[in-house]
Design goal:
CATH architecture of the largest domain: 3-Layer(aba) Sandwich
Oligomer: single chain
CATH topology of the largest domain: Rossmann fold
Bound molecules: guanosine-5'-diphosphate
Order of helices and strands: HHHEHEHEHEHEHEHEHHHH
Distance between the termini: 27 Å
Largest sheet: 7 strands, parallel
Number of helices: 13
CATH superfamily of the largest domain: P-loop containing nucleotide triphosphate hydrolases
CATH class of the largest domain: Alpha Beta
Number of domains: 3
């Protein structure tokens, strides 16, 4: 490929990296070519999903993790999913500014992407960016989401390790836990442990884990840890747990297996997106016919006709 942007990106040029990622995110022709090349080099990064309700301290924790990783000589990629709700927009902007200070540091690349309407939807774009950052040599990749149910499931398929943030003072946290939304963590991080109320949350989560109420992914017994992202306590211990989990996966040949699944998911989501675009266009163009045939009681015939139209576009 006669494109030196990719070469420059692979050489660490930040502006080139940014261009490459933008092309990939928007699924341009160049973007797909970049992704194809980068996939040859990817598969080494440890990917860590971080989820929790707005205000749980995700950005604060990620800042602390970045510092820790960079000091240890790692290159860190961070992908943040924009919450689509306008209510959380204010705090999100605040987070973003804090994160941008960090992005000035060498060896850190932070990218936030829009979740495109579906609440917290972890889209194909996010998985593509993970794949790209991995191929560009970022060896620790953090994926941050707002913690909606579907998002968590999708983050799971894209990350090796999933950390669920739980905080004191939000009574519904434990409710969420019981409702099954938060059952999927490899690590439960009780944040804001500088507050005395954190103790009760810790006990409740510990009880849930020990009584088997949570899911044991890959036979890994989920860990529970108290941290204060703000006061930076427990961060090294948390990183140690992440490393231990990565090692656990490696010794069971699951580390690469998860990369493989992430890639399959990426391709599947890309195909779905393309098919969806075709379907949307066909629906858009045939509104009048649809109204007419439905009112004449010919829904079955309508579906068959539209299906043919979609097939013609393939
Ligand atoms: P996010 O919405 O999950 O990204 O949460 P933020 O990182 O923006 O944090 C939300 C609020 O909680 C901010 O005011 C933080 O300063 C505060 N916060 C984060 N971590 C801690 C902590 O460990 N202890 C205390 N007391 N406050 C924290």
């Amino acid at each position: 490929m006669s494109d030196d942007i990719l070469d420059r990106a692979m050489g660490g040029d930040e502006i080139a990296i940014s261009k490459v990622l933008t092309n990939i995110e928007y699924d341009t022709k160049n973007g797909l070519e970049y992704l194809s090349v980068l996939s040859k080099f990817s598969g080494k990064a440890h990917t860590i999903g971080i989820t929790g309700i707005p205000g749980a301290g995700k950005s604060t924790l990620i800042s602390a993790l970045i510092e820790n990783y960079v000091k240890a000589g790692h290159k860190v990629g961070v992908i943040m999913i924009d919450p689509s709700s306008p209510i959380s927009m204010g705090s999100f902007m605040g987070n973003r500014i804090r994160m941008q200070e960090k992005s000035l540091m060498n060896n850190v690349f932070i990218r936030s992407i829009a979740s495109r309407g579906h609440l917290g939807g972890f889209t194909s774009e996010a998985i593509m960016l993970t794949e790209a950052l991995d191929g560009l040599g970022y060896d620790r990749i953090i994926l941050e989401t707002v913690g909606a149910g579907q998002t968590d499931t999708d983050v799971m398929s894209a990350s090796h390790t999933l950390a669920v943030l739980v905080i004191p003072g939000a009574g519904d946290e434990i409710q969420a836990f019981k409702a099954g939304i938060m059952e999927i963590g490899d690590v439960y991080v009780i944040n804001k442990a500088d507050k005395p109320e954190a103790e009760a949350v810790y006990d409740a989560v510990k009880f849930a884990v020990e009584s088997g109420e949570v899911y044991y992914r890959d036979e890994w017994k989920p860990r529970i840890i108290k941290v204060s992202a703000l006061k930076k306590t427990g961060i090294q211990e948390l990183v140690d747990i992440f490393e231990e989990h990565a090692e656990f996966l490696r010794t069971r040949n699951l580390f690469y297996e998860k990369v493989r699944k992430r890639r399959i998911k990426m391709i599947e989501l890309l195909l779905r997106k393309r098919f969806n675009n075709i379907i949307s266009k066909v629906v858009e163009k045939n509104q009048n016919v649809m109204d007419e045939m439905i009112s004449k009681g010919k829904t079955d015939e309508l579906i068959a006709n539209l299906y043919d139209l979609v097939k013609q576009q393939l």
